[in-house]
Amino acid sequence: MGERYTDATYGDSVAEIYDERILGPFEEDTADAVAFLEGLAGGGPALELGIGTGRVALPLAETGIEVHGIDASEAMVERLVAKPGGSELRVSVGSFADFSLEPRFSLIYLVFNTFFGLLTQAEQVSCFEAVARHLTPDGVFAMQAFVPDVTRFDAHNQRVSVESVDVDQVTLETSSHDPFAQRTDSQTVIIRDGSVRLYPVRIRYAYVSELDLMARIAGLTLRERWSDWHRSSYPSRGWTHISVWTPATS
Fold first, then answer.
1. What is the largest CA-CA distance in the chain?
2. 44: phi > 0 → left, psi -120 to 50 → alpha, else beta; which?
3. Percent over 70 (pLDDT), the chain
4. Quick check: helix, strand or coil at residue 206?
5. Strand partners, 183
6. Average pLDDT score, the chain
């Protein structure tokens, strides 16, 4: 991907098809996430890091919670604002590796592995520290993310998988893995009507124990951890976790 990849690259490239690819297939996950987060918010306000097109933020706002957001991609935010209720959310365009907002929040959250869009450990620690500064004393920080599984990659640290095959379209995922930097560079490849579209994403994954250490550095402590929004026991075969941290003094 070279040095052209920035915080906004993924969102800018995928904004035009994001809702088509995500809203329907993740409808159940969205409803479960909103129910879980509404319970944590305690009436709000709430801040979503990587708010995107508002998949979770908009239905969460419909529950009566005041929702704020940060996203690096103007293209994603434009699509959010164009939706019913989108212009009522207070959204900042920029990186959530570090941020300074006036409100303090009872809930700050990330969903769908968004935290891993921060590409260095330093940026990820900085995010935890910024979150800690913006939480109320009894506030919580919630994260949905995958549990790293390096066995997904072959002996050459590569992976090619078929997402879907339709009559007029083939969708592939291709990835290269750097186990030392804990980073993957991926492309979703959509072949349709003789054309090829590429949607790049670069992530720096973190192990669950590493996330807890980042939280500790920022003055947060783990309150609860589950395998899904239904509070199923962790760990599980699903290779995901919902982690909730709170200020250590609360």
1. 59
2. left
3. 98
4. coil
5. 178, 204
6. 95
Q: pLDDT tens-digit profile of 220-234?
A: 999 999 999 999 999
Dist. CA 216–CA 239, nearest whole Å = 23
Determine which helix (DSSP H) or strand (DSSP E) holds 200, and give its type and residue range: strand 195-204
Q: CATH topology for 150-202? A: N-terminal domain of TfIIb (2.20.25)
Q: How far apart are the first and last CA of the chain?
A: 43
Query: Which tens digits make up the pLDDT trace of 66-90?
Result: 999 999 999 999 999 999 999 999 9
Question: Hey, what amino acid is at 195?
Answer: S
H or E element, residue 123: helix 121-134
Give domain 2-148+205-247's CATH superfamily.
Vaccinia Virus protein VP39 (3.40.50.150)
Residue 152 pLDDT grade (very low, low, confident, very high; cuts 50, 70, 90): very high
Residue in the structure block whose two tokens are 């994603």: 76
d(CA 103, CA 11): 26
Domain positions in the chain = 2-148+205-247, 150-202
